[in-house]
Amino acid sequence: MHADVMAPPRAASLELRASMSFDEWSGVGRRIARIASGSAWALGEWLLFGERRFGARYRSAIEATDLDYQTLRNYAWVARNVDAPRRRDELSFQHHAEVASLPAPEQDLWLHRAVMHGWSRNELRRRMRADRAADRAVPATVVRVEVSSDVAERWRRAAEAADQELREWVRAVTTAAADATLH
């Protein structure tokens, strides 16, 4: 952050230049939000490392952070369930928390849509709920695709690697490809 816009940050306050413009003020807010989102990722990764490396002893280090245990567990849960290569810098940690319970290809699909359309976390949540409701309300159309046995086996291995049923994996991957092509 720029020294001409704000004083050096302190743990419990933020001093901003009284004469700053709206654009400068907005920029400071965006930078703070990015730092906050990055901090959530860092704390989640830190906790996962501590669990793996130090076992039960990591709890004493958690107490040193003065953060709520459940908050830290949530950070770790999102970090565990959304692999680093899948994360989108353009989106907040909270966007990723919305998709963390989904299989990997569906995470990609929804994160891609959120980036493409500039959705807020709340809009992403709304769209995901609407999609689930539509899936329940509309009868499915069966589409048959003939592929070689080599291709079918490759798809099965990919679905297994994504810990998904083949049908769900194909649905998520083809939907993501259609979205990318149409946008």
UniProtKB/TrEMBL annotation:
This is LmbU family transcriptional regulator. It comes from Solirubrobacter phytolaccae.
